[in-house]
């Protein structure tokens, strides 16, 4: 029996995390964010699990992602919001597939209206400087929105959204104040959106005052913590992604031998190595080599030498490890697995990037 | 066709030209075109068919499932498909039936292959671990592996096609020692009564620089994608053209005042009133989160630095007072001919190698094939006539 090489997503963990998050942000609702292939977890299966958990809003970055979910059978009883649009987007597929675009400009709003999109959300920039209309553009954007309403056009302003920078508590609260100005500006032209949303995982958990009507939550649903000083368990969450690989070979190496490209690691004493078939083409950075450890059985062993395109080496010493044995790269630390945050720290980044980088070449399964 | 948010344009003419050039350098030595990892992120099928159209007879694809994908689109058995990393649970029967060449590293693996043989003999390459310690047999296991191969060949169950090894490219001396070890192993095999028809040891770098390592065949990967491996040598120096150009369309521009914080944590602040342009490519697409201060992108021949943290789906560039508009093309990397960075520059700026840059361009970035696409097998494939 040989171990599975790939990503296993724990459906029960997703469902439990959804319940935990939903309870915590109530009475605000949740937009379950499944962009970027559900942060590397596999968008379709994750979306199905979250819908089963009760999600009635899904959030994605772009319409390609949204259409893919509809085509996979996520029906229109579940709302899908998408907020990043190509300059030549005509929004007709948004209308056809029942996808709600969040629009950042007068042009996008007018194009969506021309396509008879029934509902849109307006995106305003309250400080992150990313997408969203800047404050100087609000009067024209809001006037355009009001004109649509006045003309009896099919397109309705259902929501208003912005995105926090997480720069500091006071910066985030300043953004909330700016958002209020946008709400007031819209009200002045007679538009009162059904839903206003600002906070994502970090804001909705740490700054309750930024929650508004909906919290857009991604990372926390995957059971990961957006805070450097708090673990998944601290937040009552269970990491849903477990990455495992089968040992492809074991090999004895004498003291002094180098390993992998460039020999960045040499054996200090006679030892044994295990090789697994995951590498940088699968999203495991070259730079992880010599900086992370994996679990085999109940023990931790270091990854040594450069991570190659499709393989990495593990120093197993004299441990009883055989071909086909399971190697756990990361999973739920509550079960003794390495934490994805250890991998993030090893290359100076955050858990979001580590999971989102796991490539489509890696097989996914849901349990 | 819609330009969309982002795209990786794959220039199949450039791949073809690189392949022709590299093959001319290697004459009379055979070239195996390496296309593991979905052809280094370029897309396996179009690259493979381009190579087949160019007359390539050997392709290396790492795994059996990848080789079977190529057989399924009509890559015939006159093209040898070399695989060398096998899941311990893999059933070899389909590979053997489809004449996929199997690299083997140990006795247990060879035994599984021999046991899976039904009608036709399995085509086997015996691997030697010459120091990289990734695959191939160690010196202790070599004799047993050779004896099993020799006997299975005599019984008509396998055909021993080749012996091979991978070099660590740590230093010239280490590589020389590795090749000497390989030579000794081949000699030992011959002493045990097993003739080795093909020997292949060198990959891109050693294939170019160490002529004596070329043996019967050189495995060429990165060079064919226009990504030179040697320090200080650009693709243009060698006459190679980068095959992948990563670009996006400006999704939003905005005029912001001095002192505006940009992206998460406000790690960048504008030092004057300026225009920010939103580029819809993020770390989920393969641009590292930490690229601020390291990478520049090109818009209309001008380079601009990435401003602030790269987010999952997007980043910003500070374009000053330049007339940059929504829909303008942003080139992240390409051939370098229009002022944009090359993959080689990205690798240097990010302390890694070009191979890692192209391999991690994610699945949300559509591959758009240009050049060569009207003709031959690749043309048929791109028109949907071979899937």
Describe the structure.
The complex is a heterodimer of chains A (367) and B (387). By secondary structure, chain A is an alpha/beta fold. Chain A has two domains: 11-225, TIM Barrel (Alpha-Beta Barrel); 241-366, Lyase, Ornithine Decarboxylase, Chain A, domain 1 (Beta Barrel), CATH 2.40.37. Chain A is built from eleven helices and 18 strands. In chain A, strands 1, 10, 13, 14, 15, 16, 17 and 18 form an eight-stranded mixed sheet that branches. In chain A, helix 6 links the parallel strand 5 (99-103) and strand 6 (119-123). The two termini of chain A are 18 Å apart. The model of chain A has no long low-confidence stretch (mean pLDDT 95). Chain B is α/β, with parallel strands linked by helices and 387 residues long. Chain B has 13 helices and 19 strands. Chains A and B meet through helix 2, strand 10, strand 11 and helix 11 of A and helix 2, strand 11, strand 12 and helix 12 of B.
């Amino acid at each position: 029996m040989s171990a599975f090489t790939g990503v296993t997503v724990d459906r029960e963990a997703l469902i439990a995390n959804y319940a935990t998050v939903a309870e915590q942000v109530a009475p605000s609702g949740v937009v379950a964010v499944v962009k970027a292939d559900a942060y590397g977890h596999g968008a379709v299966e994750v979306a199905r699990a979250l819908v089963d958990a009760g999600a009635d809003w899904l959030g994605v970055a772009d319409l390609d992602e949204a259409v893919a979910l509809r085509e996979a059978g996520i029906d229109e009883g579940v709302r899908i919001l998408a907020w990043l649009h190509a300059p030549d987007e005509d929004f007709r597929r948004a209308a056809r597939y029942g996808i709600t675009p969040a629009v950042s400009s007068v042009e996008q709003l007018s194009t969506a209206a021309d396509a008879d999109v029934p509902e849109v959300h307006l995106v305003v920039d309250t400080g992150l400087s990313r997408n969203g209309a800047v404050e100087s553009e609000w009067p024209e954007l809001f006037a355009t929105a009001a004109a649509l309403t006045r003309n009896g056009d099919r397109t309705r302003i259902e929501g208003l959204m912005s995105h926090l920078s997480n720069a500091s508590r006071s910066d985030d609260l300043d953004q909330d104040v700016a958002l209020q100005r946008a709400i007031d500006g819209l009200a002045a032209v007679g538009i009162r959106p059904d839903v206003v949303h600002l906070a994502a995982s970090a804001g909705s958990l740490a700054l309750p005052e930024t929650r508004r009507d909906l919290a857009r939550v991604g990372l926390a649903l995957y059971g990961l913590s957006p805070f450097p000083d708090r673990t998944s368990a601290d937040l009552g969450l269970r990491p849903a992604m477990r990455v495992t690989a089968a040992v492809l070979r074991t090999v004895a190496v004498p003291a002094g031998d180098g390993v992998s490209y460039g020999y960045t690691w040499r054996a200090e004493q006679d030892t044994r190595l295990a090789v697994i078939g995951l590498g940088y083409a699968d999203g495991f950075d070259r730079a992880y080599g010599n900086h992370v450890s994996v679990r085999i059985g109940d023990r931790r062993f270091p990854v040594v030498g450069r991570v190659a395109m499709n393989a990495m080496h593990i120093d197993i010493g004299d441990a009883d490890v055989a071909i086909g044995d399971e190697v756990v790269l990361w999973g739920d630390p509550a079960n003794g697995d390495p934490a994805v945050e250890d991998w993030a720290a090893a290359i100076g980044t955050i858990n979001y990037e580590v999971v989102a980088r796991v490539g489509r070449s890696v097989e996914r399964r849901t349990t | 066709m819609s330009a969309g948010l982002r795209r990786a344009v794959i220039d199949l003419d450039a791949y073809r030209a690189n392949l022709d050039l590299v093959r001319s350098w290697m004459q009379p030595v055979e070239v195996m075109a390496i296309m593991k990892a979905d052809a280094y992120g370029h897309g396996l099928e179009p690259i493979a068919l381009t190579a087949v159209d160019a007359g390539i007879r050997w392709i290396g694809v790492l795994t059996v499932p990848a080789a079977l994908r190529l057989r399924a689109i009509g890559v015939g058995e006159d093209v040898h498909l070399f695989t060398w990393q096998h899941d311990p649970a893999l059933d070899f029967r389909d590979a053997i039936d489809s004449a996929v060449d199997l690299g083997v590293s140990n006795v247990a693996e060879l035994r599984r292959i021999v046991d899976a043989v039904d009608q036709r003999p399995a085509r086997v390459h015996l691997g030697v671990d010459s120091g990289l310690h990734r695959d191939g047999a160690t010196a202790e296991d070599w004799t047993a592996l050779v004896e099993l191969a020799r006997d299975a060949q005599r019984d008509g169950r396998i055909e021993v096609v080749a012996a091979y090894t991978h070099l660590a490219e740590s230093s010239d001396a280490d590589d020389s020692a590795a090749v000497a070890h390989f030579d000794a192993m081949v000699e030992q095999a011959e002493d045990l009564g097993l003739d080795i028809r093909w020997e292949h040891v060198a990959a891109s770098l050693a294939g170019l620089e160490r002529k004596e390592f070329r043996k019967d065949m050189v495995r060429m990967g990165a060079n064919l994608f226009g990504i030179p491996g040697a320090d200080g040598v650009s693709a243009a120096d060698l006459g190679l053209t980068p095959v992948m150009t990563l670009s996006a369309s400006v999704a939003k521009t905005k005029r912001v005042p001095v002192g505006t914080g940009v992206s998460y944590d406000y790690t960048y602040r504008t030092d004057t009133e300026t225009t920010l342009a939103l580029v819809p490519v993020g770390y989920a697409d393969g641009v590292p989160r930490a690229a601020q201060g390291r990478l520049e992108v090109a818009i209309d021949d001008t380079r601009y630095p990435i401003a602030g943290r790269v987010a999952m789906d997007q980043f910003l560039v500070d374009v000053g007072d330049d007339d940059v508009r929504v829909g303008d093309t942003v080139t992240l990397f390409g051939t370098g001919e229009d002022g944009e960075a090359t993959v080689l520059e990205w690798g240097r700026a990010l302390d890694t190698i070009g191979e890692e840059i192209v391999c991690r361009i994610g699945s949300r970035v559509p591959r758009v094939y240009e050049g060569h696409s009207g003709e031959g097998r690749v043309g048929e494939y791109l028109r949907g006539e071979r899937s």
